[in-house]
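Input sequence (123 aa), recorded before submission:
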Amino acid sequence: MAVLCHRCGREYDITLFGFGRSVECDCGAIVTPGADGIWENIRKILAEAEQEQLDLLRREVDRVCSLIVTGRSPRVDVEIEIEKVRRLCRELFPRKEGLFDLIYMSRFQRLWKQFRGPENPPE
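Predicted structure, token format:
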């Protein structure tokens, strides 16, 4: 586990700290393992996990966009893939599922109209 410097964010291995011991960071701040450092580490871990989830969702959205743009997949297959991405979004971000339609469906529909014609964009 790492302890973060509150000033510059540099990480220090927890094993450097003996009971009640502090370390002086290169930036000059005194780093001590305590509740603040633990909560900062938890925040960092959660942020990294959310970024990984966003990257996964982004890759899946890009894949569906590619299916639309290339024109090789029939409409029904594209709609099935869109529904899979919608479910993934719901699983990864349960309290933000309404944003899927605002952000991604409008993109899918715009691409469909641009590359496949104005009639019958996915819904």
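Checked by second reader. Helices lie at 35-70, 75-92, 98-116.
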